[in-house]
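Justification of resources, computational component.

The compute hours requested in this renewal are based largely on the per-chain cost of generating structure records like the one below. Each record pairs the submitted sequence with a full structure-token output. That output is archived, and it is also reused by downstream analysis tasks.
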Amino acid sequence: MAKLGSEKRPIIARVHSDEKARYVAETCAEHGWHYIIGFEPDKPEDISDLEKLLNPTQPTVSTKVGRNEPCPCGSGKKYKKCCGASGSLIA
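The structure output for this chain reads:
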């Protein structure tokens, strides 16, 4: 699948006003993104494609503790000998 904002997959925005259309056009031009703007007053505004590119989702970070790493409870023991032995993590 082509990248959003490219020539093959442009940003599609549905707007009600000239001001919103100008905002979308200027923002896309600054970043070099391709876009299509439609004026459709009978449908709700939708600039979600633009918002996805401006605010990308961050990948989730795992907080898993390895068996041989120091215990996160601060005891100084290895996790497997401390909180890992009881089956519950104290944070």
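The beta strands are 11-15, 35-39. The helical segments are 18-31, 48-54, 83-86.
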